[in-house]
Amino acid sequence: MSPRPSRRALIGAAALTPALGLAAWRRPEGAPLDPPTMTTVATLADAARAQGRYYGAAVRAEQLRENAGLRAAVLRDCQVLTPEIHLKWNSLEWRKGEFNFAPVDDLLAFSQRHGMEVRGHTLLWDQGTPGWARQDMLQRRDWSLMSGHLERVLKRYAPRITDWDVINEPIDTEAGAAGLRRNVFHQAFGPTYIERVLEEARAHAPQAHLVINDYGFEYDNPVDQARRKAIVALARRLRASGAPLDGIGVQAHLDLSKGPLAVEGLRDMTRRLIDEGLEVTITELDVKESSFHGSAAARDQKVADETRRYLETMLAFPQVRGVVTWGLSDRFSWLSEPPQRLHADAPLNRGLPYDADYRPKAMHHALSEALRLTA
Ligand code: XIL
């Protein structure tokens, strides 16, 4: 079997270029000459790199293009970028046969210019499937629609993108069937759609690191507990059948309303996944606030404490290959969009490393320290 990239390989290109740290930081057009963040805070890229890991963030191409402050933060902290929406099927092909590759191409060009990698998020997601494809799949149950999509995206991008969230959010322990979400793929093709998709992904991207990505593993409640069991069971089933699965992505959308983190549960799940020969990536870290009361500093401290506790638990495993936050600045967080944001006047959620004015917060410091921990 051909070797596939380990956690070091994904950052190989970045590792060969000069560090993305202070020395290599280039002032993007229009950025303030001397942003306060540049001199006082260690970069997350440096912290991660020191342990052979990577740090990255989800971004949108147009946000990066239009906001010098965001660009500066990305350039100094990130080795990896995840397209927040552009690789989803409904973004690539909103209308059948009309393709919109430009935003992904832009992000790839940006990342290449700056020695970064891009994560492939995501080939298949129920919520990211265009209506026409959904209808077509349910009516005709024609696999060629799936094959065509996988082939098109991977042929175009797999040579450049080596880490793929092949299937996003396949687990559902509440309304699912044997732990699997009754998503459009399950409804049209049955539970083995997962193996079939992985096989095809491997065929088109033999060198890529293939991941199943999911959420809801972090807290001590019956649902998260069942979800931890379900992801381990799925991983076991797939590995036992020889399906080409290399890793699990844990989204890690933390939530301050859900009580203490299930530290033991997380350790146990991660250990079991690793025992199956899998690597683990933290793919969408952010912290949802439960109360917007108190000073910004007090809120930021809670967010930072939760981040630190979570990362200290997960990064104790050397097989956890990297950390991606779902955004970088509170200015652009999905937690401040509906339906996560309950009403338009609600304060911005402060669950990302930088505030809305691109100043690093306590969460940045927590990330930087946790990434430095030796596994
Ligand atoms: C979200 C984006 O952040 C939103 O902007 C978009 O409207 C919907 O998708 N889990 C995932 C991500 O895997 O793809 C989701 O991203 C957030 C939840």
Automatic annotation (TrEMBL):
Domain spans labelled GH10: 38-370
Top-level EC class: hydrolase
Gene Ontology terms for molecular function: endo-1,4-beta-xylanase activity
Keywords linked to the UniProt accession: Carbohydrate metabolism, Glycosidase, Hydrolase, Polysaccharide degradation, Signal, Xylan degradation
Protein EC: 3.2.1.8
Reaction equations catalysed: Endohydrolysis of (1->4)-beta-D-xylosidic linkages in xylans
InterPro entries given in the database record: GH, GH10, GH10_dom
One of the GO biological process terms: xylan catabolic process
Domain of life: Bacteria
Similarity section: Belongs to the glycosyl hydrolase 10 (cellulase F) family.
Descriptive protein name: Beta-xylanase
Organism: Brevundimonas naejangsanensis
Top-level taxonomy: Bacteria, Pseudomonadati, Pseudomonadota, Alphaproteobacteria, Caulobacterales
